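Review form for a predicted model. The reviewer records the input and the model, then writes brief findings.
Reviewer: anonymous (R2)
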Amino acid sequence: MKSFLALIIFFSSLTVWSQTRETEIKGVVTSYGAPLPNANISLKGSSSGIQTDSNGKYAVIASPRDILVFSYMGMKTVEIIVEDVTKILNIELLPVVQELDEVTVERKKLKGQESMAIEYATKKSIIRTAYGFIDAENAGYEMNFVDGASINSSAIYLADALIGVLPGLRRGDGNTVLLRGGGSLENPRPPIFEIDGVIFTETPDFLDLSSIDRIAIIPGLKGSIKYGNIASGGVIIINTKGKFLKREEGSDKPYDQAKLRNNKYNESMATSSLKRSDPIYITKMDEALSNNKLMEVFLEQEKIYGSSPYFYLTALKHFNEKSTNDFIGQIETKLLQKFEDNPNALKGLAYLYENQNRVGEALSLYKKIFVLRPRYTQSYRDLANMYVVNKQYQKGLGIYARYKSFRKLDTIAPIEDGIDAVMDTETTNLMALHADQLSISNEDRIDGDIGGIRILFEWNNSEAEFDLQFVNPQARYFTWSHSLENESERIYDEKIKGYSCKQFLIDETQEGVWKVNLKYLGNKGFDPTYLKTTVYYDYGRSSQKETIQITEMSEKNINRALLSIVARNKFGK
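Model under review:
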């Protein structure tokens, strides 16, 4: 008991020390992709603050667990909890709509998203995009709109239905289309398509033409402002019927799309064709013809990119199966020496160790992270889990129990599907599968068989935002969104408690192939995010097994295939 109290006092002193460290945080504040000058940035609870410059840039001094408040007249206020690794915060502010009783308000040029969502069903000049609603009356650039009822729904190909209806559209090679101004006459660039928020680089001929509600065209140069160079040929945005026309009962939230449209998933809805090419430093190292030359090129590139831990992590992930242990070892040593106090970098390396079954080395890293972040719930969970993976079951159970004692001192209310649910699930599973090693008596034993498949997602950067799309064997899908816009309460809970994970349980009675797709939305910085996906089969049973997949999230706003899972009904024949 004395040792436990001493440990709590030690943790408390570490927490106080970590909260007093000040650091400079930089970034850009934007609205609809444009810099926002004179936006206000302040520490919550403080009367002083600063403003962004003419380019929307700012720099502010803050400490871990401070709350930075970003505000601007007529915009929704954004609050971000500062962490020990926070250096870059690029913030997007969106307009807010104020409802005034018996007052008619003139339409603003930048109309709020909530207002456009309400008017969407009755106003055909509003289109829903991956970046929010756009109203042609307030877009600030040319847009052409077509009502879905005016196209020929009996056409065989989408190109046949659109040509002659959409202004400036002509046929390209095969069933492709081209927009006026898309590239040059000698080198025309085809437009990209966005259908209900999903981007396609090829003409989506799979689309049921009768399901089209409305279509909008953004010319090439204007489209590339929002979508990047892939849209230099323009953007054709298609909204299908039923989207955002109904609200959940007793709520102002849009009705779930799968319920509303009885939505069927199509393989073309997820693509990895836009996956970015390898960084230039990887390309240059790949060209090395010998290990000596490889190290020489690495040292050259290190001078340019060595300030980022992801230079080393990307090299380790890429060359793990292609190079000598000596080369890999030198990179790991450099990473550990340069970024020994960066928990995000250490966690990314721990993910790679786990994926390579180097569980002892992963355990050492999680111990270091625990010391760096003693108040983070994720530190407890990761350390306990890695003790279990290393078959040190008693130590693992001790960490889980220590967390519960630690949480009794915390007044923050738990969220059922948050870290507390993860910890409870894993504690129960540990006690059920390893009762003998834990000396649990027969009368105290529990059943850890929760049934089916458990999927655990973990990410090393807590600012990461992304969507996970789950497609069941009947090709019906639902989406879990980890973003400030859609899950602000959960993200606040994650920041307060200090965790970055989410578990899902797959019902094994739905036998067949499940698919999981990923759309990365960014992390308010420039570095990528590492996502660790662990799939447990027969969870809680003696036959339990698992697989680990590490994904570097970098390309944004692309719905890409992440993994496929085969579920077998244990109650079936």
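Findings: Residues 1-19, 98-111, 243-263 have pLDDT under 50 and may be disordered.
Further findings: The chain has four domains: 21-92, 113-263, 269-339, 340-567.
Recommendation: see findings above.
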